[in-house]
């Protein structure tokens, strides 16, 4: 981000290249830009008396308001969000009031963290603490830091621009729009460039994730659970500016869960995922073990476990194919040969 002095000395072409929306600002301010290779200082020095009256501001005021325009636009577009380098979870206490069994967990951008634990142990609570950027003010008394600092309270309350995007099990659409209309509406609200190409990409990715394909003209209310979930995941991965993604249970949703995760982490986001499924849990770099409301352990995925995951993937695919055959009324055969092939038996 340029400061005010830098702005004065930057060529107009450089400012527009860095922040394309400033072209509008210059137009609104009626600044005549015959030569975009000049900097703002030079332009103001060369303004005719007449032109100077049109611009109203002097150089100081002009660059100050240009700067705040850029800051506002960046905030609006969510571009300042991408600077989350680390998310830290500081220990609180479990349901019995005992301190948690760790001090501080630092998660870097691009990392996947799984959260595992029995039903009712507090997995969703941990995700909620992160979403709320808790500061000792939730039942667990955990604290959340972003880039080693107490996060700004604005993260909690702003509507459009969010630190955290949450994908939950219930994904009900209420609007009566086609898939394409919905995506365009969202893309427009984010003021993205190349809207058509982006919408096409989200649509294609969503169709790759969905077990059953759907058309761009389909009404979103008519999509199946798996299809709407696939659409939301592709939309979140590609359009959301939130640097942290929380996933509460992705299993049994009729989508390709691994591809979904790859798509989500592909964009240098932090992904935390509560799951009971070993194939997904082992996709994580680490897994948090929750028990009785507290973090009982943090385990780094071992090389052995990564090998196991490849075996489980094959098993998962076999089961998936069986489900598919079942659905389409086929007769099912034994799979012992395939199992032997992956050395799961014998
Ligand atoms: N450290 C804690 N102190 C007090 N209450 C807690 C704590 N951790 C979790 N809880 C509460 O325990 C209840 C169950 O937690 P939660 O819903 O997060 O479990 P879960 O692991 O997500 O369960 P499931 O697997 O069934 O979805 C919630 O009401 C939650 O607020």
The share of residues in extended strands comes to: 5-15%
Low-confidence stretches: none
Instruction: Report the principal-axis shape.
Output: globular
List bound small molecules.
Answer: adenosine-5'-triphosphate
What's the number of domains? 3
Radius of gyration: 25 Å
| Percent helix | 40-55%
Strand order of the largest sheet: 5-6-7-3-8-9
Q: Give the distance, in angstroms, between the N- and C-terminal Cα atoms.
A: 61 Å
Shape-level CATH architecture of the largest domain: 3-Layer(aba) Sandwich
Give the beta-strand count: 9
- Under the CATH scheme, which class of the largest domain? Alpha Beta
Order of helices and strands: HHHHHHEEEHEHEHHHEHEHEEHH
By CATH, the topology of the largest domain is Rossmann fold
Average residue pLDDT: 85
The count of helical stretches stands at 15
CATH superfamily of the largest domain: P-loop containing nucleotide triphosphate hydrolases
Q: What's the main sheet like?
A: 6 strands, mixed
Structural class: alpha/beta
Summarize the structure in words.
By secondary structure, the chain is α/β, with parallel strands linked by helices. The chain folds into 3 domains: 4-77, no CATH class; 108-128 and 153-301, Rossmann fold (3-Layer(aba) Sandwich), CATH 3.40.50; 308-341, no CATH class. It has 15 helices and 9 strands. It has helices at residues 4-9, 12-18, 22-28, 40-45, 49-55, 59-77, 123-131, 154-157, 179-189, 195-209, 225-239, 257-265, 278-281, 303-327, 336-341; strands at residues 86-90, 104-108, 112-116, 143-146, 164-167, 244-248, 270-274, 286-291, 294-300. The strands form 2 sheets. The chain has a 6-stranded mixed sheet with strand order 5-6-7-3-8-9, sandwiched between helices. It has a 3-stranded antiparallel sheet with strand order 2-1-4, with no helix packed on it. A hairpin with a 2-residue loop joins β8 (286-291) and β9. The chain is globular. The structure holds adenosine-5'-triphosphate.
